[in-house]
Design brief:
InterPro entries: DUF7281 (IPR055705). Helix content is 35%, strand content 16%. The chain is of the alpha/beta class.
């Protein structure tokens, strides 16, 4: 993803509280922001865009594009004589590029998994407080019976051993969704192996949107959404405010998974959303 001058100016309009036509801001970056529930896209024929999470936008730009000030970024892009020193003040990359320091993704496990990397055996069993980064993912192979579990939030990923009780029916290998600019590598890897994918995220409209837009559409039948058996009880302890702020950014009619549709209806009924972090501190003996 790159931020063009045109889209940067459109973002400023949104930050200023304006609603703009979707046709004037078509880009993969805008699509990503919609998927993240940072921008809301509404309408069927004449679609429009509205910013619903300004803090989330600034965080996204800083984390994904290393842009810390969109206003200064625009000024820089409009100045053909800008120096690299000036550029560095605005971005963490003096060339204002989206070059990646690493390919690959983070993995974690609370049990030992014997895998293969570059035709050599590797044991996936990180010590507490550490993870394993798979760089040469093209040669990374895991046993067929292992279920790959994508974890949406970093806290859950780092404390996955406290959530063992949720996954006692599968042999899981956990993958971190962050950093998000590694997700294409992960999708490419998942498509190359026979293993199934299970998504573990927040139990709200935004979480379902991430599952549908980032994973299900690429992995099809291989992908499923993890839904706790006690979700009907747990969701009652969720957050009403986050429900009120979120908007559906996927086509419900296209969903073919009854359990996902049931979860959507349950969220609408309770008018609440539940952070997946809830399950870190929940009694595993329930």
């Amino acid at each position: 993803m790159k931020l063009s001058l045109k889209i940067a100016k459109a973002l400023v309009q949104l930050i200023n509280g304006e609603s703009i036509p979707n046709s004037l801001a078509k880009s993969s970056l805008i699509d990503a922001l919609v998927a993240e529930n940072i921008i809301h896209r509404k309408g069927k024929h004449k679609k429009s865009l509205k910013l619903i999470n300004e803090k989330g936008l600034h965080t996204f730009l800083a984390n994904q594009l290393q842009i810390t000030d969109v206003y200064s970024y625009i000024s820089l892009k409009e100045n053909p004589n800008a120096t690299r020193a000036e550029s560095t003040k605005i971005t963490t990359d003096s060339k204002i590029s989206n070059e990646r320091a690493f390919k690959g993704f983070l993995v974690n496990s609370y049990t030992s998994i014997t895998a293969e990397l570059n035709n050599k055996q590797i044991i996936i069993n990180p010590q507490k407080g550490s993870f394993i980064f798979i760089y040469d993912y093209e040669s990374f192979k895991i046993p067929k019976e292992v279920t790959v579990v994508g974890v949406e939030n970093t806290k859950n990923f780092s404390q996955i051993n406290k959530q063992k009780y949720l996954f006692n029916k599968v042999n899981p290998l956990f993958i971190s969704r962050y950093p998000q600019n590694q997700s294409k590598d992960f999708i490419k890897w998942m498509k190359s192996i026979p293993n199934n994918y299970m998504h573990f995220g927040d139990f709200d409209i935004a979480g379902i949107g991430i599952y549908i837009n980032e994973y299900k559409k690429h992995l099809s039948e291989k992908a499923s959404l993890f839904i706790p058996k006690n979700i009907k009880i747990d969701l009652k302890k969720g957050n009403r405010e986050r429900y009120d702020k979120q908007r559906i950014n996927f086509k419900v009619d296209d969903i073919q998974e009854p359990k996902v549709l049931d979860l959507i209806e349950l969220i609408k009924k309770e008018k609440k959303g539940l952070d997946q972090e809830y399950y870190i501190n929940t009694n595993s003996q329930r």
